Amino acid sequence: MASVPVPADTPRGLLRRPRATTGFWSWFTTVDHKKIGLLYGFTAFLFLIVGGAEALLIRLQLARPESTLIDAGTYNELFTMHGLTMVFLVVMPLSAAFFNYLIPLMIGARDVAFPRLNAFSYWAFLAGGLVLYSSWLLGGAPNGGWFGYPPNSTTDLSPGMSFYSLGLAMAGIASTVSAINLAVTIINMRAPGMSLFRMPVFIWMGLVVQFLLAFSLPIITVALFQLLFDRELGTNFFNPAAGGSPLLWQHLFWLFGHPEVYILILPAFGIVSEVLPVFARKPLFGYQFVVFSGIAIGFIGFGVWAHHMYATGLGPVANTAFGLSTIIIAVPTGVKIFNWMGTLYKGDLRFTSAMLFAIGTVTMFVIGGLSGVTHSVVPADYQQTDTYYVVAHFHYVLFGGAIFGLFSGFFYWWPKMFGRLLDERLGKLHFWLMMIGFNLTFGPMHVLGLQGMPRRIPTYPEGYGFDLWNLVSTIGAFTIAASILVFMWNAIGSFRKAKDAPADPWDARTLEWATTSPPPPHNFDEVVTVHSLDELWHRKYAEDESGKVVPVQAGAAPEDQSHVGGHGIHLPGPSYYPLVAALGLPLVGYGVLYGWWLSIVGAVVLLAGLYGWAMEPGAEEA
Amino acid sequence: MAETLRHEASHDTSTGLPNTKLAMWLFLASDCLFFGALIASYVLYRGASLTGPYPNDVFDIPYTSVSSFVLLASSLTMVLALSAFQREDPARGRLWLVTTALLGLTFVGGQAYEFTTFYREGLSLSANLFGSTFFVLTGFHGAHVAIGILMLLSLSAMSFAGKLPGDQSFPVEMVGLYWHFVDIVWIVIFTVVYLIPTPNPT
Question: Based on the domain organization, do A380 and A448 belong to the same domain?
């Protein structure tokens, strides 16, 4: 029995079972969580470049006053698409990339609970992203902001906001399916002995994020349908002329939108919680506090949404209540910051690129968190709302927090994923360029906002005191772009050298480092039995009589298992059907805009994919 | 072999629950939020329509009560189907599955008739807030029932063709979970939308 059984030549249903597990075409049929993770990562990085280019155009336009480089309509499309891209097509799928790749490895599993469903999630996400971007060619991109407030979004004549509804609904379906899949994986597929409180913090944060996704995305899905129906079918959900309330959209949007903030940041918190202990050579300080504060953030995250709506006139009672809940949610977040500082305290610190990015995450997130606390104070927020101060705040948490954290993850896990180490000198250049560029870009926006520069304006008059800081901000944005180029150079360079990464290059603590770099398709040759938190560390080190940490003599290093074992392990086989089913989604979506017959074709394709899927066994019986 | 695999799988999992069952429960929990948002939208706009037709003008409570009863009865036949498969009597199980699907079809057919009647009486998606919220809420519920019918019929066909591997009662149980959920949601919708009276604006 081979490790990936090759089926007998028996066509079943529509399509013959794909055989290739390597090569270009295998990426279209793969159900391996590691390959799907890489697909997510690669796709999200391409979208990062596109979304970054949109940001650079915005900054070029704002570099000097009264600029006529970009007209107001295009500017609206650019800032809308920049926000949508970065939130839904970059940070969420990059987190999904890490979760997909690492969850099974870190809990000692062979794959996720539903491998084909996992492939479907990726293809549906890609379909959503492409539908969203196809709007540039089909009559105009979304232009109502990533938040899509009606009545602007319902009455605008360009089709952009319909693409917004359809694209995000598809990405939402992808994320919901993936959330259920990954949550079941974490709950149900842990290696023997890996109790919940032996799970790495990254896995805990992953579990919280999957629950946030599963319970917040249905709400935005309903809102997106209502928006779409208002635009295309003449319903009145957000139509004041018929008695409808645009505020309903804001409630539904932020009831999703605020949990979404934690969906974006908790993966980075998880990454930081793995990276800091490894490079401080100390266990995470207060593991259970970090875990429980993450869970607390998950719960309270559903109770703060109206702090996005202070200025809409909800009244003093509602504003006070949501102000209080917003102040309260800062507490578990602050707990984590102190835990990370405690981890670093008296640690044997190694300032690798991954470590620098992790420290960058913590420090920049503190700045963003503090400006966030100023927003929770209602009278202060009245001054800050819709100014550049808000733009500064959320870039400090989402770029300074999430993107820095994700880059820390890139440097840390790159050798595991590709068997090659990234260059540390280029990594440090990348870090400092990005750190300086980031603060140059978004630091001055605090000042601009407090001086009264409004968000979302395509230009500003001369002599309002906005000129200097806008120019600084633009210079910063191009510095960030330069740092991304350094990273790409680093990434390409890593593939031009021989595989040099050992199984455990960082002397790390968790299970993914117990297998080869990159791991074999079946992850582990033998089922791992877990005895403690930081399992791998305890396999490598023990305390002697005087309490000193010493390396364990026998069986210390994880042996190279790449050429032995792995036989007789029954892996799920590749399949066309997830791709076929996902192909149906954009057809259904385009049908709403271009004629119902196309929706019916899409539904048939979707159903054909699902039936083929149901009739095809998960793994071939050899 | 598939049967042994399945049994091994459920003993292998960390919680002892089969993955599919856990996933189905999570999906249903997630779907609660979906219907929650739709029902909340309906309740928010209850009595807020500026023009008619209003609920009192179109609702035929006895008619919808009968179709609701039909849908609820389908939960009973679903239980009987599962019980038959568990007793390893797939022929009887398929009979009950098809009966459940037919009851579901009766409900959806009744809904289609109701929608047409309402439309003739002037209630459309765009007529007023009541039309928008009513059709979208009950429409999405009807779509859930339709998907359930499709699953029930596919299940009976696969069982008949011998394509259900091993322990046939397991997929029946999963579809049953979904079917009962859709029924329970209807109890909420029927109460909130039809039974709690909405006075006409004066």
Answer: yes
